[in-house]
Amino acid sequence: MISDKRLIRYLLGESGKKNQRRIEKWVSGDTFRQQRVNSLREMISDSVDRTESHSEQMHEDWQLLLSRMKGSPEKYRLANRVNYRLLLRVAAVMLVMVGTALFWMLKDQRYTVPASRTSARVITLSDGSLVTLMPGSSLVSPARFTGKTRLVRLSGEASFEVHSDHENPFIVKTGQAMVEVTGTKFLVSALPDGDEVEVHVESGKVLFYNSNVLTKDAFRVGLGAGEKGIYSVSRKTLDKFNDFALLSTP
Questions:
Q1: Whole-angstrom Cα distance, residue 126 to residue 32?
Q2: Where are the domains of the chain?
Q3: Which CATH architecture has domain 108-247?
Q4: Which DSSP string corresponds to the chain?
Q5: Which of 28, 47, 99, 232 could be a cystine partner for 92, CB 3.0 to 4.6 Å?
Q6: Looking at the whole model, is its pTM more than 0.70?
Q7: pLDDT tens across 20-61, in order?
Q8: Cα gap 227→222, rounded to integer Å
Q9: Mean pLDDT of 175-195
């Protein structure tokens, strides 16, 4: 993952040729990364425009301050030759970095596949995980994962192929239950009008919780490859079974 700081340096033309080629290769062919770079480019442009619009007034204020400093030492007179454009540029970059962090932390992306659609939709999340969203389903995910967990919210049915990251667990919340993994392939079925939440594990291991909030009454089961878990909302039961459909798959 290339940080926003490095991308900003690239967009300002301050990266070396080697880093430029690396970033261009990293961005190429990835729609999400291209959107991320375009958003940063727009934010830099807006910040520079805003700061430069006040540059003339800043210069006049600085001149007035110097004129009132009787017997100013040489170091203050030298300050009059400061490259104001450079200072404004640095200020703009700082504004962009702070604004970018808030932008990516607060911005959520919603993916929806209408029930009338006959095909599923494949989504690539910011960590490289793949989600196949089934018709009639929706997924809410941050544009960029931050913090110690990778949290998404699902309504309907989707299969996941999660990028392995043991330090930052991947969590799927359905409104009635929760699934936690570090890196595996599994399917979650949580239809809005259904009474059951199902989890089918193709590879790896997952933790299946009977609640999306970890309280003293919450409990969980561990599921491995070839197993499925079913949580009944009405009966408040969470059971584990062999998934013969997966076990019979060659």
A1: 7
A2: 4-106, 108-247
A3: Sandwich (2.60)
A4: ---HHHHHHHHTT-S-HHHHHHHHHHHTT-HHHHHHHHHHHHHHHHHHHHHHTTHHHHHHHHHHHHHTSTT--HHHHHHTT--HHHHHHHHHHHHHHHHHHHHHHH-EEEEEE-TT-SS-EEEE-TTS-EEEEPTTEEEEEESS--TT-EEEEEEEEEEEEPPP-TTS-EEEE-SS-EEEESS-EEEEEE-TT-SEEEEEEEES-EEEES-SS--TT--EEEE-TTEEEEEETTTTEEEEEE-HHHHT--
A5: 47
A6: no
A7: 888 888 777 676 677 777 776 766 665 555 544 555 555 555
A8: 9
A9: 90
pLDDT tens-digit profile of 114-127? 988 888 999 999 89
State the residue for tokens 């599923």: 120
pLDDT of residue 104: 46
Q: Can you give the pLDDT at residue 216? A: 66
Which amino acid is located at 202 in the chain? E
Q: Which residues touch 90 (CB under 8 Å, ≥6 apart)?
A: none
